[in-house]
Amino acid sequence: MEPAVDVMQKDEPNTLRFVALSSADNARISENGSALVDYLLHPPKGTERELGEGIAPEITQKRRDALRALTEAAFK
Amino acid sequence: MIMNATIAEYSDLLEALLPAYDKLSLFPPSAAGGGEGIIRSDVFLQGDALPEDEVAIVAVIDHVVPFAHHLLTAADGHSRVASIWLQDGVADLSPRPDIAFGLELRGSEIDLLRQGGNGHPRSEEEIYRAIGLMEPGRRDARWMMRASSHGAAVACTAAGFLPDDRAGRAHPLIAVGLPDWALADTSGAVMPLLLQASVVFIISRARMLAAEINADRAQRGKPPVRPPIVVNISLGITAGPRDGTSLIERMHDVISAQPPSDLGQVHFVLASGNTRQRRQNAVLKAGADAPGEIGWNLPPDDRTISELQIWAPVLPAGAPAIRLRLTLPGAASAPARSIETAFDDPVGAGAQIAMILDDQERELARLVLQAFARGDRLRQCLTMIVPPTASDKPGPVLSPPGTWQIELLPGGPSPCDVVVQRDDRLFGFPRAGRQSWLVDPTYVERDAHGHWQAADPADPSAIRRNGTANAYAWGERQLRVGAHYRIGPWHADDGPTRRLSSYAGLLANGDCGDLTAAGDRCVALPGVPAPGLRGRATQIVSGTSIAAPRITRWLAARMAGSTPPMTRSQIVTAAKNGPGNPAGVPFVDIPMPWDR
Question: What is the predicted ipTM?
């Protein structure tokens, strides 16, 4: 068995690398987009948040339609 | 356009967060709350709640707003809350088609709920139970069981009047109750969409209310009015462009500049924030003769991600990308824990995403270089996001706690603003985030007399206090509210600024907001009294969150008068000319119904 201190040292980050993502990944963020929103929607492996399980597209569309109806009512 | 851009940008994240509680809306209020649910009515205000001659609508966007509170009720028992959107309320079986989630209640519906008891009016608590807002078995329906809430203090301070006070008739309230989960995440990831939707809701309902008020006036033979609105937002974050270009700031400015034709002037009142002394802001300059390096301290036991933004000046397209050297904690014993960024020079608006990986392929940080269009030029922002430093579950990658060194390298834009995003925990919410902060050994927190420092000196260190105002509040027309101590010596030698609070966020020029109101009783007694959630309960609330609704209340009274102030400068002038103010200081002190 290895000493505990060695186990801890192995777990510490050592050599670092700067890895640029592809232009397809970069396109996830729009011109006025939020880096934080992109991070939450595309979290690092192993740190996924407990987001929702997904919802039927028609409900999503219904909500977006409602927001647009509210906007129209406000600024018509 | 701005609202559509907000929907496009944030609705995916909203959809990812919504389903968890949306499933609960399968159960109607009658099943969830034990009551008979809501009887639909489209009328906003009835009886004594309808304005007589003067009117200025007050709007509040906050958390847990007690719409059945007696201070929000007219003398004849009708609700003065014209409409409230409970964004995490249990949805009705037949929701209004423009309510995307949650529940809207109009004044007449609140009246019907109040009258729905068995031979006696329902109490506030019975009303909340009847529509599923007080349910011990549901995690998202326990707030109303408490004695106090932020929304109770803010809404009642902004628009609360004793029922027999006729002044209250001039100020109907339109409110939005934000979801618990949106407040729990103080970095405000999805807040832009919720705030924008709230503002749109307020404008929409204010226009309908204006039509209802004018129909009532026509019956009484009075000419129509265009009601002005004062919108209170006692919420904020710390990081952002801070140049008035965020979607939130742009929407506020556009509405204030061109309110709908059937409304009067619309003013947005925002708290300036309480983070002046929290070391969230700095300026770095690349080169040997200026501070080009700063520490970023990530505390242990932080269960949420931390974010830091570095903003360059506005530069021509093709200017070099921001260049950083990042060094992880403990680098003295392991020099390899340092790395330099290598982004391409941005030639147009867009983003470049990169990861910092260790030798085990763990992503220790996400770096995003964005270039935002500013006319024909670009403003770069390099965002650094790191994972939590602690987790309740085994497995996830954690960030090493301690001080990360950030060095702005020559060859890129300089100077650059550094801003740490808010990541703390609001009172009453479960433990989650812990606020990170910047570390500069040369920074001095207090002056020679032991006082907290005010505005930056002429030759500041890297850490700054100027520019610590709420990052939602850098628009051209918004009103930023700082805080002062209600009681205290004026310190003639130092000037009246001694009475300003030590914590309120400062504008770029070092001012404590555009104007101030009481955020504390005195230096030794933090906070001011404000109503609690039910009955005659009182709570003590401190900071610019509670100063802002005092300004909202004061401003609404002026907006209902014959010569309402239309611009920020007119409002500041009115505050400076108020009774008892020292010359040139925009202090506002107003009596509250609960003052003794």
Answer: 0.90
